Amino acid sequence: MTETLFEKIWNSHVVVERENEPSLIYIDRHLVHEVTSPQAFDGLRVNHRKVRRPELTVATIDHNVPTTDRSLPMIDETSSTQIKTLEKNCKDFGIKLFGINDPNQGIVHVIGPQLGITLPGSTIVCGDSHTSTQGAFGAFAFGIGTSEVEHTLATQTLWLEKPKTFEILATGKRKNPFAVTSKDIILSIIKKIGTNGGTGYVLEYRGDAISDLSMEQRMTICNMSIEAGSRAGLIAPDEKTFDYINNREYTPKNFDNLVEDWKNNLMSDSNSKFDKSFTIDVEKIEPQVSWGTNPAMVSDVTEKIPTPEEFGQNNEIQIESAKKALAYMDLEPETPIVEIPIDRVFIGSCTNARLEDLIDAAKIVKGKVVNSNVNAMVVPGSQMVKHEAEKLGLDKIFKDANFEWRESGCSMCLGMNPDILKPGERCASTSNRNFEGRQGSGGQTHLVSPVMAAAAAITGHFVDVREWS
What is the pTM of this model? Predict the structure, then answer.
């Protein structure tokens, strides 16, 4: 019987399977952060339970951690309380924590891969929807709720309904790989299939255009699978995957043997059937800019903001949604994307704060200065990324251009810390969500790639970055 990659991973992790009911699935790795875990640990205490496999659970501080000087007292009491609570919970239950001053601290979806914790063929969960990032390594990685965090801590298993399979076939070659990035590819996919196009499915990205991407670029693709409504995103592992994982701090000692097994087993069979399929030609993709309040509301940088009727295409719900989004974003239909002015620029988040992202943004910024009307910041995805960037002198390039160079954390991605937009501030952001209030109450978010964000910081408005490369 032929199987897709997802089906192979699922079948190898089933503990209990019942017809027309959820299955009990074994979980290989559990990642924890400070926001979704406090109630889960309290539940363990109330029921006098231990963590079943503490050695398979790893914690970090990322959502609330300050990105400014960490030697100073924390101003936000809620953030301080959540961080202290996680520190106590990890100590009480014997869980490894990458704390506020740890050199391996960072966004949970960044540190998993860079430490070798994320492995092909594994099941990975975290109380955060963008856990799907790690599907770039051929892992079934997905976000869970607080009650599921408790269940995983207590049993190292989860009850799950089996998702369907959805093939995303990316063909062709990008004409300008520097300017047309993996962020543009995934935004283009979401624009086409919609924010609910992947609901009930695991997306598997296939094709030469995916194989052509680096591991960091693949992580961006899988990261935003959730914005299409899917359970997770997957890319079959290859030599790039194995090279990336090799010799990381937590890479298993039997790595070579594992690689042989992964090569033989972790790919969809040639004649396997997906429940759904979609094809996109990346040669036709341009740099993308979101104009609305969900990640499907995006346009090519050379286009104008569509009218609600153009966007909705006779769907009244979509038309009304576009009207509401334009009102919130304070934008007029048929405004050229390149005429949208910017107040803030945020280069960071689990989507685009890895070393390659910062290297590419620095190439745009080098020798230039941030527009006088713009406040721009760079927040590395982890302390490791930060130190590697500083070794390359990227921090100096950004600071010389009047960017703020910060410590690692989720930062302005979600407005759960001091890094937030003021009402009415318009931000070019490399993050993953442009929902109302996502980056701060009344803040207006435009999703773009790191190079597009960097160029907007210099000019004060969006530009076609292909003209800069």
Answer: 0.97
